[in-house]
Design brief:
2,3-Dihydroxybiphenyl 1,2-Dioxygenase, domain 1, about 45% helix, 3-stranded mixed sheet, single chain, 3 domains
Length: about 475
């Protein structure tokens, strides 16, 4: 009798729920964030029937309760290679390359996530995964010491990698194996209060960069945040203080809009947590470390390359206009200037579509399917939309923004850390460590739009199935 294998999408769902439970136990304020987001989402849907209808039609509403993204930081090429294999077992692929060195962070990154529409609907769990660039540590002695520390650690349990191998050779995992895989893989992301270095070494790493200290000083890449998705991040930002949470000064990403674009994120600063440093002869010395924080996001439509170019230009202009410093200084001025700059970015779904600035998913309407051809003359997609035969909905942006990721990291590392690294990005180096090329997110969105239009036209039937 053939073995029944669990779908990777189902393994990912098991894993994301288990990680959420683990993180809730480790960081009690995470539960407060979940409750806050749930309350804001419910209130938003109560007062916006049109939004509710759109989310129900596109299947987005079912995602809200389970949607999370997390972030981890790895130290070696071997760790990145194996984490890619672990995530592949859950149906997650590396999408996009993010160079954060230009923002003063000695890492480059990708996002592991599902890439099929079915996978995203089932559970769009994502992990933003960064790899330390040891060559960015200026102190050569410290660089060698860091490499030695990283080489000695093992961030995966032996059984995790055995199950990954089994999944690859057998074509999947059984239910029992999948549940064991989730338990074992979860250990990689668990918080360990015991550091792997002494206090003096930690302080040297910390002085070089707090992110370097976080990556190197522990047994594994503890999950440093799990991010729920909200429908109104401005409401979350204003409500956080009333729930005992101090938000960062500004929301990262674009300003508030009628038609949300890309990704907006906010967070609260990482909390100081008690840890134990090595002291010698089996003894440990108490200390503190700040690594884990709370983050919330609001997702909008995915932009085309033309749209991204416009977005990047407007964002860069706003950041040149106003520099954000400290917890609150200049935050109101920055937000005002950001809104002013983005007035030139269309804020209407149809205009965004017709201008080629954003990606949309097409579907045949009931009226279109039921209609009889009015003419055998050539007809365009625009005419089908005008007749009410073809509908379009924004494709959700599933990925991340380098400037926003850096802004979140910096707000939690401390605003004094603004070192600039004079070095080129290296996607080739990253992909060599990864073992495969990262997927291009723009190509994925373009494919989703193209396929949806082809399917919709086929549903409409002749003569509309020939529309280009």
């Amino acid at each position: 009798m053939a073995k029944q294998h669990v779908r990777p999408d189902d393994i990912r769902d098991l894993f994301s729920r288990a990680m959420s439970d683990m993180y809730r136990a480790e960081v009690p304020q995470y539960q407060t964030l979940l409750e806050l987001v749930a309350d804001v989402n419910a209130e938003t849907l109560r007062h916006n029937a049109r939004l509710r209808a759109e989310l129900e039609r596109t299947g987005e509403i079912e995602r809200l309760a389970v949607e999370r993204h997390g972030a981890i930081r790895l130290g070696t090429a071997e760790e990145l290679f194996n984490i890619r294999r672990v995530f592949a077992t859950m149906g997650m692929q590396p999408v996009g390359y993010y160079d954060l060195s230009a923002a003063g962070l000695p890492v480059h990154s990708t996002a592991f996530r599902p890439v099929t529409e079915e996978g995203l609907r089932h559970n769009p769990f994502r992990i933003f995964t960064s790899l330390l660039r040891l060559e960015l540590i200026d102190d050569l002695e410290l660089r060698d010491q860091a490499a030695e520390i990283l080489a000695a650690r093992r961030v995966f349990t032996p059984r995790t990698l055995e199950l990954v191998d089994l999944s690859q050779t057998e074509g999947g995992l059984t239910r029992v194996q999948a549940e064991e895989f989730v338990r074992e893989a979860l250990e990689t992301f668990r918080w360990h209060k015991n550091a792997t270095v002494d206090l003096a070494t930690y302080q040297k790493l910390h002085k070089a960069n707090r992110l370097i200290a976080d990556i190197i000083s522990f047994n594994g890449p503890h999950i440093n945040h799990l991010t729920p998705r909200t429908l109104d991040i401005d409401a979350v930002q204003s409500t956080m203080p009333r729930r005992g949470i101090a938000p960062k000064a500004v929301i990262e990403g674009p300003p508030r809009r009628n038609c949300p674009i890309l990704l907006r994120q906010t967070s609260f600063k990482a909390l100081e947590e008690q840890i134990l440093f090595r002291k010698g002869a089996g003894e440990m010395a108490p200390g503190t470390h700040a690594a884990r924080f709370g983050e919330i996001e609001q997702r909008g439509v995915a932009l085309t390359s033309k749209g991204r170019d416009l977005y990047d230009t407007l964002l860069a202009a706003a950041r040149r206009d106003v520099r954000i410093e400290g917890a609150d200084r200049n935050s109101f001025t920055y937000e005002s200037r950001l809104s002013e700059r983005f007035r030139s970015f269309p804020d209407d779904w149809d205009e965004l579509r017709r201008s080629g600035l954003a990606f949309f998913r097409y579907s045949a309407t009931a009226a279109g399917v039921a209609s009889k051809p009015l003419t055998l003359l050539p007809i365009t997609a625009e005419e089908l939309i005008a007749r009410g035969f073809l509908r379009f909905d924004p494709i959700v942006y599933e990925d991340f923004l380098p400037a926003s990721a850096a802004g979140i990291f910096q707000s939690n590392l401390g605003n004094d850390e603004k070192k600039l690294y004079d070095i080129q990005s290296s996607q080739e180096q990253f992909e060599a460590a990864l073992g495969i090329a990262v997927r291009n997110e723009l190509e994925l969105y373009a494919q989703a739009e193209r396929v949806s239009l082809e399917v919709a036209l086929t549903q409409l039937g002749p003569p509309y199935d020939g529309v280009v």
